[in-house]
């Protein structure tokens, strides 16, 4: 049987998400998630076209979880002989990687040298690559970086106004994340609107638990809202986004939190959750706001206002707008969030089509504005698909 399957892996510190794509049929026959790894409650959940199954894999580490995944895939008829390659999501590629690469020992060392830029994420991503290499030493593996798409951002947009030695000596600059998502939805917008690939200006808003927006001109990212870390920029589920840089010191002087404590607060107790004191989940907040919960309403308004303000700022990079694209769990599903954000941008000539806004979402992508120049669109993101595509392209080239 010819090998045509691409295994896409997103390995986190205590979880491992995977999907399998069939490169000949452009389908995704199986996907799943192993979570609570290294604990007695570790489980593996697998979804196929016929349904979802859950298995206990107590105390499994990344390698044992991957073994369970590949055994289960074999049982479903997707044995290792059918695997063509694996693609891994890697969070930080620093300035070293401006596109996806096939993994070699040298590449692994280069990724490892960037661990200080994403100490929570990159080592966990590497663990997935290492575990798979141990199981299948001959399987080609590709690394796809969240930051790579933003390597086209110019110095004026990525340089922080701090002593330049911090950039030279420690790589302190803005990098941006969610690159696969911004790349995918912006190219889909260009395709759907039949824009000129060499002459277009698109703003993409990826709104999930993490949120970022990106300015794309002629296929290249020119600016984005996340920075050195994913904490910068928009208001997110539990992350504050932009705050006064003096806040760390202020909070630590007023409370007994140390630097780590303040960082944890800004990452895990802030954003929608922090303002609402209710939830980080946009569905819950929308329902609560409709029932009169004042802080849920405030959280939503801050979220939309800050997003609109960031989009307006990103237009400085593009110098105009052909399309504004919403994606991610909130961008694809939360109709009131799209409505409020676009309302703040009415002065740009954007006007939502109320009916189209209600009918478009995860299952129906397309234009939701009365105007087509510029257009407001909903395009479901497909980050795993992008990883599979890059993997296939690189492996075919070798
Ligand atoms: P992640 O960044 O973890 O991949 P998602 O892209 O799935 O997250 O986005 C999660 C967010 O999407 C949550 O805030 C969730 O409430 C929101 N969301 C999902 N479905 C809806 C919906 N129907 N209406 C409003 N918000 C939704």
CATH H level of the largest domain: which superfamily? Answer: ATPase, nucleotide binding domain
CATH architecture of the largest domain: 2-Layer Sandwich
Measured by DSSP, the beta-strand proportion falls in 15-25%
Mass-distribution shape: globular
Strand order, main sheet: write it out: 5-4-3-2-1-6-8-7
Number of domains: 2
Q: Poorly predicted ranges (pLDDT <50, ≥5 residues)?
A: none
EC number: 2.7.2.1
Pfam family, one: Acetate_kinase
Pathway: Metabolic intermediate biosynthesis; acetyl-CoA biosynthesis; acetyl-CoA from acetate: step 1/2
Subunit structure: Homodimer.
Can you characterise this structure?
One of its GO terms (cellular component) is cytosol. This protein is 39% helix and 20% strand. The chain has 398 residues and is of the alpha/beta class. It has two domains: 5-145, ATPase, nucleotide binding domain (Nucleotidyltransferase, domain 5), CATH 3.30.420; 193-383, 2-Layer Sandwich (Nucleotidyltransferase, domain 5), CATH 3.30.420. The model has no long low-confidence stretch (mean pLDDT 95). It binds adenosine-5'-diphosphate. Adenosine-5'-diphosphate (ADP) binds at residues 208-210, 237, 281-283, 286, 328-330, 333-334.
């Amino acid at each position: 049987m010819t090998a045509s399957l691409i295994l896409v892996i997103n390995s986190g510190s205590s979880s491992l998400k995977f999907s399998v794509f069939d490169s000949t049929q452009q389908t995704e026959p199986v996907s799943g998630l192993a979570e609570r790894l290294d604990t007695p409650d570790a489980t593996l959940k697998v979804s196929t076209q016929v349904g979802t199954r859950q298995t206990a894999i107590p105390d499994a580490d990344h390698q044992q979880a991957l073994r369970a995944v590949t055994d289960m895939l074999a049982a479903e008829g997707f044995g290792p002989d059918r695997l063509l390659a694996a693609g891994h999501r890697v969070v930080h590629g620093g300035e070293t990687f401006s596109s996806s690469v096939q993994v070699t020992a040298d590449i692994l060392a280069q990724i490892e040298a960037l661990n200080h830029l994403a100490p929570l994420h990159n080592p966990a991503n590497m663990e997935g690559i290492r575990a798979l290499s141990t199981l299948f030493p001959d399987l080609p593996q590709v690394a796809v970086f969240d930051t790579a798409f933003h390597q086209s951002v110019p110095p004026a947009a990525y340089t922080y106004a701090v002593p330049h030695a911090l950039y030279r000596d420690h790589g302190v600059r803005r990098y941006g994340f969610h690159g696969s998502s911004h790349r995918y939805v912006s190219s889909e917008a260009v395709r759907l609107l039949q824009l000129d690939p060499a002459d277009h200006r698109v703003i993409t808003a990826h709104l999930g638990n993490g949120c970022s927006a990106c300015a794309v001109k002629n296929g290249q990212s020119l600016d984005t809202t996340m920075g050195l870390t994913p904490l910068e920029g928009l208001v997110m589920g539990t992350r504050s986004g932009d705050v006064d840089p003096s806040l760390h010191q202020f909070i630590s002087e007023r409370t007994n939190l140390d630097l780590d404590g303040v960082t944890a607060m800004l990452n895990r107790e802030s954003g929608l959750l922090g303002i609402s004191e209710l939830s980080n989940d946009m569905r819950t907040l929308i329902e609560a706001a409709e029932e009169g919960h004042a802080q849920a309403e405030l959280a939503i308004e801050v979220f939309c206002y800050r997003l609109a303000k960031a989009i307006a700022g990103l237009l400085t990079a593009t110098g105009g707008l052909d399309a504004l694209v919403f994606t991610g769990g909130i961008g694809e599903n939360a109709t009131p969030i799209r409505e409020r954000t676009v309302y703040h941008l009415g002065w740009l000539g954007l006007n939502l089509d109320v009916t189209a806004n209600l009918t478009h979402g995860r299952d129906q992508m397309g234009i939701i504005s009365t105007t087509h120049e510029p257009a407001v669109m909903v395009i479901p993101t497909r980050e795993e698909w992008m990883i599979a595509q890059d993997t296939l392209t690189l492996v075919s080239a070798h």
